[in-house]
Specification:
β11 (146-148), α4 (163-172) and β12 form a beta-alpha-beta unit. The chain is globular, with a radius of gyration of 17 Å. Helices cover 33% and strands 26% of the residues. Strands 4-3-5-6-7-8-9-10 form an eight-stranded mixed β-sheet, with helices on both faces. A five-stranded mixed β-sheet has the order 12-11-13-15-14, sandwiched between helices. Strands 1-2 form a two-stranded antiparallel ribbon. It has two domains: 2-133, Fructose-1,6-Bisphosphatase, Chain A, domain 1 (2-Layer Sandwich), CATH 3.30.540; 142-254, D-Maltodextrin-Binding Protein, domain 2 (3-Layer(aba) Sandwich), CATH 3.40.190. The protein is α+β, with helices and mostly antiparallel strands and 257 residues long. It binds D-MYO-inositol-1-phosphate (IPD) and calcium ion (CA) (2 copies).
Length: 257
């Protein structure tokens, strides 16, 4: 199944890359949130291939692709993570595929077509980028850490918009990035390129694959209270483990009135 998922992510990524050269049609999902024909084409390719090969598997995909399945295996699919970047021609976006077995993360694959990087992990089998083993960083102090975050599309209307947390961490970490693809942010934590990522308001398909990849690279993934992150929890903190407690502490302080 890992080989199947890797092949599928490569094919969907190639489709996205080719489609980026062409004129795109764009639909608004909300004031900021959009979906393009490329999101939909990538999802159709992925969902079609899974249904054909594994008709008994359940599917949950961002743009509405769904299948009920027999209750054992479930796929969580983001056919294009980083749609805003993609739309503007900024080459930071990915395809994210996760497979759960009886509710537990079994495999995760994230593909970045712009850099040709394929991140993959299988439960208990470690994490890899293009076949090379991944390991989280060894940075032990928040002041030396390069960390990342993101903001939900409904940030203008939701009270917990992550701005207070961002402002606090920007002054306490070495620096803060906002790449626009949560799935890639998590892979970069696994690869030691970032020391942590935090975010709120995320959907199951944004985080499932990346969370497994971080864990399999030796990192820690929790909710904002420090409990092991359950699949689908919208608030995530993923780190190299060493700066985890300090980051949770700063997030808690940022939320105090
Ligand atoms: C978005 C990206 C972004 C995150 C947003 C997500 P999409 O996913 O992952 O980094 O900050 O919260 O919605 O809409 O591009 O698939
Ligand atoms: Ca997404
Ligand atoms: Ca998406």
């Amino acid at each position: 199944m890992l080989d199947f998922a890797i092949d599928l992510a490569h094919r969907a990524g190639a489709l996205l890359r080719a489609a980026q050269e062409r004129e795109r049609s764009v639909e608004a999902k909300g004031p900021v949130d959009v979906v393009t024909d490329a999101d939909r084409a990538s999802e159709a390719l992925i969902v079609g291939a899974i249904r054909e090969r594994f008709p008994e598997h359940a599917i949950v995909a961002e743009e509405g692709g769904a299948a009920a399945g027999d209750g054992r295996y479930q796929w969580l699919i983001d056919p294009l993570d980083g749609t805003m970047n993609y739309l503007h021609g900024l080459p930071i976006y990915s395809v994210s595929l996760a497979l759960l077995h009886l509710g537990e993360l079994q495999l995760g694959v994230v593909y970045d077509p712009s850099r040709g990087e394929l991140f993959a992990a299988e439960r208990g089998g470690g994490a890899r980028c293009n076949g090379r083993a991944l390991r989280v960083s060894a940075v032990a102090q928040l002041e030396r850490a390069l960390i990342s975050t993101g903001f939900a599309y409904d940030r203008a209307t939701r009270p917990d918009n992550n701005l207070a947390e961002h402002d606090r961490l920007l002054l306490r970490a070495q620096d803060v990035r906002r790449t626009g693809s949560a799935a890639l942010d998590l892979c970069y934590v696994a690869a030691g390129r970032l020391d942590a990522h935090w975010e709120l308001g995320l959907k199951p398909w944004d985080t499932a694959a990346g969370a497994l990849i971080v864990r399999e690279a030796g990192g820690q993934v929790t909710d904002w209270a420090g409990r092991p992150w359950p699949v689908g929890e919208p608030r995530i903190v993923a780190s190299n483990g060493r700066i985890h407690a300090a980051l949770l502490h700063e997030l808690a302080l940022a939320r105090q009135p």
